[in-house]
Amino acid sequence: MRIFLTGATGFIGSRIVPELIGAGHQVIGMTRSDAGAKALEAAGVEVHRGTLEEPESLRRGAEKADAVIHTAFDHDFSRFVENCAKDTRVIAAMGEALKGSNRPIIITSGTGLGIAEHGQPAVEDVCNLDHPNPRVASEIAGNALLDAGINLSVVRLPQVHDPVKQGLITPLVEIARAKGVSGYFGDGSNRYPAGHVVDVARLYRLAIERAEAGARYHAVGEEGVPVKLIAEALGRGLNLPVASIPAEKAGEHFGWMAMFAGLDMPASSARTREILGWQPTGPSLLEDLDAMDYRAIAA
Question: Which of 79-83, 105-109, 141-145, 233-237 is predicted least confidently?
Answer without folding.
Answer: 79-83
